[in-house]
Design goal:
The complex is a heterodimer.
Chain A lengths: L1 H7 L8 H10 L2 H24 L29 H37 L1 H15 L3 H12 L3 H27 L3 H8 L4 H37 L11 H9 L7 H28 L5
Chain B lengths: L3 E12 L2 E13 L4 E5 L6 H6 L10 E9 L2 E2 L5 H7 L4 E4 L13 H13 L3 H14 L5 H4 L9 H13 L5 E5 L7 H18 L2 E6 L2 H7 L2 E6 L2 E7 H6 L4 H8 L4 H5 L42 E4 L2 E3 L14
Helix pairs in contact in B: 3-4, 4-6, 6-7
Classes of the chains: A mainly alpha, B alpha/beta.
Chain lengths: ~290, ~325
């Protein structure tokens, strides 16, 4: 027996897959820039509010003040520190972007896996409904939902999650559809695996790359969505600082204090650019099929 | 009573071009600890026959008739839940394609552990110890370290050994091996076959070995069922089949086997003329008649039944036996 084994023994390949992926990622300057931007954004959201001071404290002596040593990015029309508001707004943005995407993934992935694995009438029903929802542009859909749900941070997250759901379902189903016909899935059935086991231990782990890429691309969409909803008054309500709310206020003072619009606008642009570059980089590294 | 009995099995696929009669009428029995080879050309229905035993065929567009009994229990009457409990535990399958049959997301150790936990309710540590034992059993050196390997880190032969280890993890009564060596290098095939034969000896696992390679049959099988066009045409112990094949089709298969005489240039490779008939009809005739050197009027007027020709040797032919027909070497 051992004789037989020796004839076919190959040395164990000990190339760390993680290290190889990291090297491939680091060779893409755009992806690295994206990662740096995202890291800076997350850092700002986590640490910023701790050092920035109170975003609601008013300094009546310095309204619409330009950037200075005392107020790093100046103050708004009520004398509130813009940097403090940007930092607290980053927290709202990050929460809305990540929480809504996470919620959409948690709800959408099982639905997509089920539809793709079981096929049949269930799949048809889910996917036709999904197609209808996909026909609405993301922002319009989110605006409609937010209008129905009412304006609050929780409802913004909910609306953005529901608006993201159709694309999460579609992508997961697509992956499940391809994977269900693979030999290792037939093998799992032959070993007595239940459908639930096949969905979560065979289909899900093997679609993870595509889902990570999808999530990274979905987060900036949700960040813009939060800003847009708040800008329209359907999201986070003043005086809570949010980049969208800040833009709304800035509108009235564009001539006197353009920095009030520039700073939050720049933040939205940089944060979404960061996630998009990171997403593209991850796609190149993790999901080479998508080219 | 045999361990596994397949009786009057018929499998019909519904397609857009009409029904496809993949298996027209198959009956055979598998004894405990026996290696039974199911032999035939591509499309003769051997894989479909085997896959219908643990009912692994698609559920829609397929009609399965007849009985499949494991230890007297009719599997065709079981609910899906009971089949799930049976698959991998009492009947296991090893597929042809080792390169794609393992879950790429998990280490091989974890995949064996998964089956053990599913059917045997072992805790992780015991399951891992058992996984190492199993890998040793199928001849994988340095088994404990290999448990941490991902499928892509292993060669085809190694992966097929892992597949077999998963297959026998729960000590099944029946192992169905569907062309287990076809995708492997010839140099690796012998090792994998030896593993299968060893498992029968050490664990007493009965094996249904599906192959089109008579060399494989001669090496490990105890008994052979030769299939043609969805039916068995000859059934015999392996020695008797090779020493005195009765059906002209079996003779054709044996003559089509490359031999050393061929390499020395003293014999040309024989082939069976013609093609397998399309599986769309079930005429009352010998379906091999069109390709058969011995065919007579009788062959196309009624189908020959499978009859005992000598001890344990059964054949479905009106003109059986190794009579001189000019092409038998």
């Amino acid at each position: 027996m051992s004789q037989v084994g020796l004839a076919t023994a190959a040395p164990v390949v000990r190339v760390s897959q993680g290290r190889r992926l990291r090297r491939r990622f680091l060779r893409r300057p755009m992806a690295v820039i994206g990662l740096v931007l995202v890291a800076a954004f997350v850092l700002l959201a986590l640490v910023g509010p701790l050092v920035s001071g109170d975003p609601l404290a008013q300094d009546f002596g310095a309204r619409l003040a330009p950037p200075s040593a005392h107020h790093l990015l100046g103050t708004d029309d009520l004398g509130r520190d813009v940097f403090a508001r940007i930092a607290h707004g980053a927290r709202v943005s990050l929460l809305a972007g990540v929480a809504s995407t996470a919620l959409a993934v948690v709800v959408g992935v099982p639905i997509g896996l089920g539809a793709g694995y079981f096929r049949g009438w269930l799949d048809s029903a889910i996917m036709r409904l999904n197609d209808v929802l996909l026909a609405f542009p993301f922002l319009i859909f989110a605006v409609g939902l937010a209008a129905i749900l009412g304006a609050s941070l929780r409802n913004v997250v909910l609306a953005l999650a529901i608006a993201q759901l159709p694309s999460v379902i579609r992508i997961t189903r697509g992956e499940a559809l391809v994977l269900r016909d693979q030999d290792f899935v037939s093998g799992a059935v032959a070993d007595g695996a239940r459908p639930i086991t096949i969905m979560f231990r065979y289909l899900l782990p093997n679609s993870l790359n595509a889902l990570i890429v999808q999530a990274t691309v979905a987060i900036p969409g949700a960040i813009i969505g939060e800003a847009a909803l708040s800008f329209l008054g359907l999201g986070v309500q003043p005086p809570t600082p949010s980049w969208g709310v800040m833009l709304t206020t800035a509108q009235q003072f564009l001539a006197q204090a353009p920095q009030l619009a520039i700073f939050p606008g720049l933040m939205i642009a940089l944060a979404t650019l960061g996630f998009n570059l990171l997403g593209d980089g991850l796609r190149d590294v993790l999901d080479p099929r998508s080219h | 009573m045999s361990l596994l009995e397949v009786e009057d099995l018929r499998v019909t696929f519904t397609t857009e071009d009409g029904p496809v009669l993949a298996v027209k009428r198959m009956s055979f029995a598998l004894e405990s600890g026996e290696i039974l080879a199911l032999v035939g050309e591509s499309g003769c229905g051997k894989s479909v026959t085997a896959m219908s035993i643990p009912r692994l065929l698609p559920t829609s567009g397929v009609e399965i008739e007849g009985a499949v009994r494991l230890g007297g229990r009719d599997l065709t009457a079981l609910a899906e839940r009971d089949l799930e409990a049976l698959r991998g535990k009492e009947i296991s399958v090893v597929f042809q394609e080792p390169m794609t049959s393992l879950n790429p997301a998990y280490t091989v150790g974890r995949q064996i552990v998964e089956v053990l936990r599913r059917h045997e309710r072992l805790n992780s540590r015991k399951a891992l110890d058992r996984a190492v034992e199993l890998l040793e059993l199928v001849g994988i050196p340095d088994a404990r370290r290999r448990c941490d390997s991902y499928p892509h880190q292993l060669s085809g032969g190694m992966r097929q050994r892992v597949m077999i280890a998963i297959g026998v993890a729960c000590n099944p009564k029946v192992l169905i091996a569907d062309e287990p060596t076809t995708a492997l290098d010839v140099t690796i095939q012998a090792g994998v076959l030896e593993v299968i034969a060893n498992l029968r000896d050490t664990l007493g696992t009965a094996v249904v070995l599906i192959t089109h390679d008579l060399g494989v049959v001669a090496k490990v099988a105890d008994r052979v069922v030769v299939m043609y066009a969805g039916r068995s045409v000859e059934e015999a112990p392996v020695d008797s089949l090779f020493a005195a094949p009765q059906h002209p089709y079996t003779m054709g298969l044996i003559d089509a086997l490359p031999s050393s005489a061929l390499l020395r240039g003293t014999r040309r490779l024989e082939e069976i003329p013609g093609m397998v008939p399309p599986p769309t009809s079930d005429p009352d005739e010998c379906e091999f008649a069109a390709r058969c050197p011995r065919a007579s009027a009788r062959c196309t007027s009624a189908r020959p039944a499978l009859k005992v020709s000598e001890a344990e040797h059964r054949v479905a032919c009106y003109h059986p036996g190794r009579k001189e027909v000019g092409r038998v070497s």
